[in-house]
Amino acid sequence: MTDTNNTDEVVRSGAPNPHTGQYETKVTLTLTNDTRQKVVLLRGNKVIPVIFVPGIMGTNLKVAGGSDIAWRPPNMDGVGSVAGALAQLLSYLFKDSADRQRELSVAKTEVDDRGGIDVSGSGITEVLARQRGWGKLMRSAYHPVMCKLQAELAEIVTDGGSRLGAWWSEHGKDVPADWGDTKGNAALTLDELKHAAHFSYDVWSGGYNWLQSNRDSGAAIGALIDNVIVPHYQEQKREVAKVVVVTHSMGGLVARALACITQHPMVAGVVHGVQPATGAAGTYKRMRAGFEGVEQVMLGRNAGEVTAVCCNAYGPLELLPTADYNEGKPWLKVRDVQTGSEPLALPASGDPYSEIYATDKWYGMVPKANEKWLDPAKMVNIGEEQTYRSLLSKRIEQVKAFHEAIKGEYHSETYAHFGADTEMKAWGEVVWAGQKLNTFNPDTAIVAEDDENGKLWLQGGICLEIADPESPGDGTVPLTSASAPGRAGVKASFEHGRGAPAAAPALHNNVKGYDHQGSYNDKAGRSLFATLYGIVRCAQAVSIQ
């Protein structure tokens, strides 16, 4: 090396080792008369794990204590065997209500970490990703964004802190409103980005058994932090400063249970994506009519197939609209399409649990005629003092208790993003539509036939059919529920898909919204921006000492 008496500092930063995730740097010894200060940045010794918590049905499940697959949604992303994915999809065609109840019982299933893994562009190996639990999650829906988060959070600053990484240089200091924020948040400053860059960020899976209560799943994520993540870094002689939780859909309810019921002290903040914060009316629709499109093959083609699974599992039931859904206004209606009159509008007294979910009336979630679907596999022992209806009512009471426990409750550092596309309709209300209802009495109506796909005929000749969804949203979660965190006072609320004003055509939100399941694969990059912005904001409260 050339001799020098230059006294400028020589700063060397590292990069994460793809096999271990630890930051490393290479240095070369200098001659004794090179008196420059040699600085090696120790980024990576203090870690903020990012725990990605998926939505309902986004975690792979297997038979408890065994190896047989209980639930593995097919990945149609071209990674791995497409033929295998198609065969798996077709297998659901031959499962009836009893089969689904037997295979998707919370008592007989557990999380399965053997799913396929895609680490493209993440900077880490498949072995390391599997160690962090990526195999638990649906690959095509979640691994792409997990890879992006892993890669971008490793490159907040580069070259010894002298410049921002490529994505951060282009977008890191953008005004959040340009990306859909409705709260007027300020752009990140260079000092805030540098503060965040003192930590290393490792993306972990927060897979959970989505059949159990979200309360229990929140406790399970807490156990993951305490019993797996923290000891993992202790063995490496690294410190977990805090964790940031990133959620999709129902994973938001899990995170709120973790942060607000369990009140886990390690949570620095939460970023929610497309959360059904006050539930989704579409859950009722699917209990009465099955799912829509290709999803119905896997998730249930009719009321019987959906009821057999969802009414025996607390997680799905907790997606029902809460008492404060739609700001307490009725959302289940009977409507005359000719006159616009509504002879039925529930909940009428603010209690959907007794008025809609537990009742056996024809408009209830499980009417008397559908009680046969509560246990088609004959797995429940009914005693002299209980019935299937009474068991359902007890479950509904526990659902109500969970809803009340998280009502309006969010971690103090919460950031949310969601779809609000006027063309991506969701069921904000569920309307049984018919004609000539001037003499219709919902309390005395008797169902003559129900096709369990959303169409029924009453005695007297009246036909009612569940109308198409009308609410802006993402196809699953309606705007009224997705925007609820913003009304509850979270730090940021990114509303995507309504479009920006014509006077500002360059804004990133001046495009249509995204589909619920694929929200994190938004081609416009809005979900990614909102998530990275939230993570950096959460990191500001974590000490670098």
Largest sheet: 6 strands, parallel
Helicity level: 25-40%
Question: Whole-number average pLDDT?
Answer: 90
Q: Order of strands in the sheet with the most strands?
A: 12-6-14-15-18-25
Q: If you compute it from the alpha carbons, what radius of gyration comes out, rounded to the nearest whole angstrom?
A: 26 Å
End-to-end CA span: 35 Å
Overall SS class: alpha/beta
Taken from the alpha-carbon principal axes, the silhouette is globular
As a percent range, the share of strand residues is 15-25%
Specify the number of helices. 17
- Total beta strand runs: 25
Low-confidence stretches: 1-7, 500-505
Task: Summarize the structure in short.
It contains 17 helices and 25 strands.
List the helices and strands and how they pair.
Layout lengths: L9 E3 L2 E2 L6 E2 L13 E3 L5 E2 L2 E4 L7 E3 L5 E3 L10 H10 L5 H7 L5 E3 L14 H6 L7 H15 L3 E2 L4 E2 L1 H6 L18 H7 L6 E3 L8 H22 L3 E2 L2 E6 L2 H11 L5 E7 L8 H8 L5 H5 L3 H8 L3 H4 L14 E5 L7 E3 L5 H6 L30 H19 L7 E6 L1 E6 L3 E5 L12 E4 L4 E4 L4 E4 L4 E3 L5 H4 L1 H4 L4 E5 L29 H14 L6
Parallel strand pairs: 1-4, 5-13, 6-12, 6-14, 14-15, 15-18, 16-20, 18-25
Antiparallel strand pairs: 2-3, 7-8, 7-9, 10-11, 16-17, 19-24, 20-23, 21-22, 22-23
